[in-house]
Write a structure and sequence with these properties.
The protein has a 6-stranded parallel beta sheet, sandwiched between helices. A 5-stranded parallel beta sheet has the order 3-2-1-4-5, with helices on both faces. With about 325 residues, the chain is α/β, with parallel strands linked by helices. It has 2 domains: about 130 residues, Glycogen Phosphorylase B (Rossmann fold, 3-Layer(aba) Sandwich), CATH 3.40.50; about 170 residues, Rossmann fold (3-Layer(aba) Sandwich). The longest helix has 20 residues. Helix 2 packs parallel to helix 5, helix 6 crosses helix 7 and helix 6 runs parallel beside helix 12. Strand 2, helix 3 and strand 3 form a beta-alpha-beta unit. Helix content is about 35%, strand content about 15%.
């Protein structure tokens, strides 16, 4: 018999690491508001360990599509979900995908092409965390966008107290030049801090070139052929002094673990995807007057965005050393 023991809530968020971490406040709100239900997350299979680490997901339903597209189908089996929640987009493709499962109720943003969904209006100027929490609040589920922390890892860091530098990004538009990352790594190393260069699947040559140009040993690189196993990556970031990174999933992981960060933005404003406002996090972004204040560049462009290129090595080194010093001073204060 297919019928499961507990009612299920299906959450659609079939995107990347950072996308999943930005909806942790929503997952926590659903868990709190709907006790006795299993929360099923439709997301790429490679994020199974991330979903489990949040402590808020009972099962991952593998789902994905190229880029930020909506999956064409979901391999859902058994009775329809009691509730479906569209945290993927503003429809109609994501709405229709979930409606085909015939959920008892569907929470989603309103769209003229799916008039049977009486959801709130979509706003293009919201931060990603605020957007999805507002959706839940509209339906009567209290959600706090600042409630984004995930539990710390059980395993120890492979490099306690290191400064982690991540030169990779999904698109070239969000990838600061490798020689500049190398210059930052060299300066931080010379300031007396251990440096680790991380890389995702396929980014090994990039990470190794940064390490070599910075004068770091080969074992300063973590990852490359495949993604760093999430428990190990989580332990590294949780135990780091600071993370220096572009607008990628690793920046969101630092926020989720409360680790200091310096985040470099280019084609998309930090107002939409930046870390929480806190002295522990430094955002570097160099737009110019008259540009689109939210999305002045092409986030999927084939070369580094001009706003990213305006950020200098000295700025990044200064920001990294400042957050390291701030955290060291804060930890020295009793109580």
């Amino acid at each position: 018999m297919n019928r499961r023991a507990r009612p299920e809530v299906l959450v659609l968020r079939a995107l990347g690491l950072g996308d999943l971490l930005t909806v942790v406040p929503c997952l926590r709100a659903l868990r709190r508001a709907l006790p006795g239900r299993d929360i099923v997350l439709a997301a790429p299979a490679r994020l199974a360990a991330v979903a489990a680490a949040t402590g808020l997901v009972d099962r991952l339903l593998p789902a994905g599509a190229p880029g930020r597209a909506v999956p064409t189908e979901l391999a859902w089996a058994g009775p329809p979900p009691e509730l479906a929640v569209d945290l993927h987009g503003n429809g109609p493709p994501s709405h229709l995908l979930l409606q085909r499962l015939r959920p008892g109720r569907l929470l989603a943003y309103g769209h003229p092409d799916t008039p049977d969904i009486a959801g709130p209006p979509w706003r293009p100027d919201e931060h990603e965390r605020d957007r999805w929490c507002r959706l839940l609040r509209w339906y009567g589920i209290e959600a706090d966008p600042t409630d984004l922390r995930i539990p710390g890892p059980a395993c120890p860091s492979p490099a306690p107290g290191a400064v982690v530098i991540h030169p990779g990004a999904d698109s070239a538009a969000r990838r600061w030049p490798a020689p500049r990352f190398a210059a930052v790594a060299r300066a931080v190393d010379r300031a007396g801090h251990r440096v680790v260069i991380t890389s995702g699947a396929g980014e090994g040559p990039l990470a190794r070139s940064v390490a070599a140009e910075a004068g770091l040993p080969p074992d300063a690189v973590l990852g490359g052929t495949d993604d760093v196993p999430f428990p190990l990556l989580c332990a590294l970031i949780a135990g780091a002094r600071c993370v220096v990174v572009g607008d990628t999933g690793l920046a969101h992981l630092a926020s989720a673990l409360g680790t200091a960060s310096v985040v470099l933005f280019g084609p998309v404003a930090p107002r939409l995807w930046g870390p929480p406002p806190h002295r522990r996090h430094r955002v570097l972004w160099r737009p110019v007057a008259g540009e689109d204040p939210l999305r002045p560049g092409d986030a999927h462009g084939a070369s580094p965005d001009e706003r990213l290129l305006r950020i200098t090595v000295d700025e990044v080194v200064g920001a990294a050393l400042a957050v390291i010093d701030h955290d060291a001073d804060a930890s020295a204060v009793p109580g």
